[in-house]
Amino acid sequence: MILDTFRLDGKVALVTGSTRGLGQGAAVALAEAGADVALLDRGDASDTARLVRATGRRAHLIRRDLVSATPGELAGAVDETLAELGGLDILVNNAGTIRRAPAAEHSAIDWDEVLAINLDSVFHLSQAAGRHMIATGRGRIINVASMLSFQGGILVPGYTASKHAVAGLTKALANEWAAAGVTVNAIAPGYMATDNTAPLRADEDRAASILARIPAGRWGDASDLQGAFVFLASDAASYLTGAVIPVDGGWLVR
Prior knowledge:
This protein is of the alpha/beta class. 44% of the residues lie in helices and 15% in strands. It contains eight helices and seven strands. Strands 3-2-1-4-5-6-7 form a seven-stranded parallel β-sheet, with helices on both faces. The protein starts with 11 loop residues before the first strand and ends in a 7-residue tail after the last strand.
């Protein structure tokens, strides 16, 4: 039955940036589809763990600060997932941050922190997870890209650079690992009602201009991405790799 190919029973996922927002939504969706979930965050993801366990699945908390974590420490998070949950089938690189400033004033510290979280951690976690997945002959890596994987944006040069790079890295890893049974895809959320977009939503003129361009006529939320996460993690997407899929209410086609 086709619906059975969307099930994740017996699978283990690792989700970054999982305390709230899109990461929490992804973790809960994967659990509802049958997966146990490791939750990696620098903050306390206990609330997400509670929601995962309420589905009957296991949750394991891993504390890492992606600004300062070394490649070895990120590989250690993969090892911890394997040890505590007995496997790793799905990696969701969701954690992200943004710094807003004119390019001429964008500080080196802001640049480095944005790239560390949005790009460096994606590569190092994917590399560590990928080694395990290649050895087992199966795996799903799902990166979170952005509308700014396609566009330049305003006042966010570091974020835009990182999200363009995530799209490119997704394609590069997909090329290398597809023959080993490992798919690598990305979801590009549109304008979502998250902490990252709070300043935009607080600016009446900017919020109005954004909404005027979205054919769906509203900001998205975490639930709008849950189906895409489950699909890309499942056997239903076994022949899909290297894709960057917009979930944007029509923003890009406007």
